[in-house]
Amino acid sequence: MRRVYVASVGYTTVGDHWNKSILDLAVESGFKALAGAAKIKPEQLVVGNMFSGLSSRQEHLGALVANGLGLTGLPAFKVEAACASGGMASLTAFNMIRSGQIDSALVLGVEKMRDLDPGEISQALCTAESAEYTQFFGASFVSLNAMLARLYMYEFDVTRADLSAFPVIAHRNAVHAPHAQFRKEISYEDVARSMIISDPLRLLDCAPVGDGAAAMLLVSEDVAGDVNGPLVEIASAESATNRFSFYERDDMLDFAATKLAAHKALKSSGLSISDVDYLEVHDAFSAVASLSVEALGLSKRGQGARDAREGKYDCDGGLATNCFGGLKGRGHPVGATGIYQIAETYLQLTGKAGENQAKDVSVGLAQNIGGVDTTAVVHVLKRN
User: Fold this and answer.
1) Catalytic option among 17, 171, 179, 332
2) Do 69 and 198 reside in the same domain of the chain?
């Protein structure tokens, strides 16, 4: 198996792109990534996206984006795994290069969400859940995560202030991130007093709706010498699934997919969780962030939210986490999120993170999930 490297990255600002189509966003990020390693011509295009058919009435994204980038003739396809679509697209390209099938791939994640009204967005996000049961009975994706948050608070005596910790961290980190959707700090009181969306989740517990695209060029060790800029090795990438709906699980507070994907990824990389000094965690909801760090083995069971409140996941002084704001601050254009996470980890490991740079980072881990930990994709990256 060959080594695989991130050679360059490109991304758009996350936000309300009323004057740009899904293709415009994809092409913008793709050209930026290609420009960063101009000598490399990709042999494959992989696009991560969740619901372009609903939001843009557009499928067949692989060929469409290839055409827009002037890469006609290139093999291209779309990968879908709900909010883990970006991470799964990266995993797919990683395995193609690692196995020797190809030497380079452009991996791109894109989502156009703001063209839908709130009810349509809720319906689109619900496609990550069972159409025959969960959707049929009208449970929204937010309400499912609210039930999870309520159970988490009840089982482990988690307070409202504890639950607010990850959103506060995210917004503090997003202030200096040029591509972040919300570059404004919030307080614990701001979170607690924000509008109830689905009790106990309030507006500031939830990742926002936004448009965005991110891309990266992956190369094998055989052509890495043609890259002028810095390289970051993807030491491993793994995925796992859980029982489909969280209320079917024996332990609803056990993110078993994240736990298994992380275990496989760390074992494959030859590293341990204690080697990780930069973390991108899927903080779509405050409770999800807490349960994720617990599943990764970074916090004890029931302690993730408290650890965050006590500074364990601060970018200055703790385990540097979501230093560009994560899903909550940077934004969560769902099909693109997994690529944003890897791109931001690349920036950290190459010292290109600007005012968001964490100190002395050499190993990064990115966790991207679809559904309520129904699908998890974990990448382990290390400085070359």
Assistant:
1) 332
2) no
